[in-house]
Amino acid sequence: MGDSNLWQDALELAWISEDKLLAYASVVMQEDGSYIEFRAAAPEEVELVYTLLECASPEKGTEQTVPEIIGEEAAWLFEGSKSAEEVAEVTQNRVQLYLDER
To answer: Bigger pLDDT: 80 or 29?
Structure first.
């Protein structure tokens, strides 16, 4: 089992041993008096998770463009060169243009 496929590996283990897991259920009482029930996943639930994993794609990193635009435009407001309304309009237009071009 590789680190990059940790979830898939865990699901495979659950799938392989589903006969044993189906008999497993546990209820835990929390400090606030609420209960949490743990149970084995049904085969169709495991299959759904597999499907979701196959469709998932990782983020390419932390997106900084929008916060940078906001910071650049907010500087005009704090400097006193533009009103809040002007800054909001320009910021919205720049962010929308960026999102449209992505």
So the answer is: 80
